[in-house]
Amino acid sequence: MIGKGLAHGVQDLPWGRIFELVQKLDDRDLRDWYAARAGGWSRAQLQTAIATGLHERQGAARANFEWTEATWNPVTGCEEVSPGCTHCYAETFAERWRGIPGLPYEQVFALKLWPQRLEQPLKWSRPRMILVNSMSDLFHEEIPDAYIEQVFEVMGKAHWHTFQILTKRHERLVALASESPGKALA
Ligand code: SF4
Which residue has the CA at smallest separation from atom 5 of ligand 1? Predict the structure, then answer.
């Protein structure tokens, strides 16, 4: 038993399977989908199921947002910036993993850059609708301009995908785009 407050179906799983779920799946609905089944699988079977996209073959919901097909989180963590943040799903999700060392949300909802994830969309050969930063706001004031530029450069290279960005900090989006003529963000 790992602890209370985890997603339904997760709390009774052995640590190794919880690790696989958190390491391999950013999306809450997908994680819940696999967690509901992982009790009857070995860790190796869970790895294979995730790697081969079992949920897609069985027609499961592919992402928390029904209009997207994948999530890409080169940044995680954020802070409330408007009344619209009151029921932030990302913060609620991150809180589920509080106190579990070694997992991606060990730091809960503190802002964190994940440069090792920057190249992910370039490795997905099948065109997808990708939600960028489902677990943060790409225009958070503490994310360096250069890092945001890198995210946009990857989107430019991975032209076979469609990227979707939601932000509550549109002022910074507008400012960066106007300050960076000719660059990837413009
Ligand atoms: S800006 Fe978005 S990610 Fe950040 S706290 Fe608000 S709703 Fe959550």
Answer: 80
Tokens of 25: 């799946």
pLDDT of 165? 92
Alpha carbons 138 and 167: distance in angstroms, whole number: 7
Cα 93 to Cα 35, 86, 126, 146, 175, distances in angstroms: 14, 14, 28, 28, 30
- Among residues of the chain, what percentage have pLDDT more than 70? 81
Atom number in ligand 1 closest to CA 80: 5
* Residue type, position 150, single letter: Q
What ranges do the domains of the chain cover? 1-61, 63-186
CA distances from 121 to 118, 138, 185 (A): 8, 16, 17
Using only C-alpha atoms, the chain has a radius of gyration, in whole angstroms, of: 17
Torsion sign, CA atoms 46, 52, 54, 56:
positive
Question: Residue whose CA is closest, atom 7 of ligand 1?
Answer: 85
CA distance linking residue 62 with residue 60, whole number of Å:
6
Q: Which residues have C-beta within 8 Å of that of residue 2, sequence separation ≥ 6?
A: 10, 11, 13, 15, 18, 100
- Which of 44-58, 126-140, 166-180 is least confident? 44-58
Interval 23-81: pLDDT, tens: 888 777 778 788 888 888 888 888 888 877 777 656 554 445 556 778 899 999 999 99
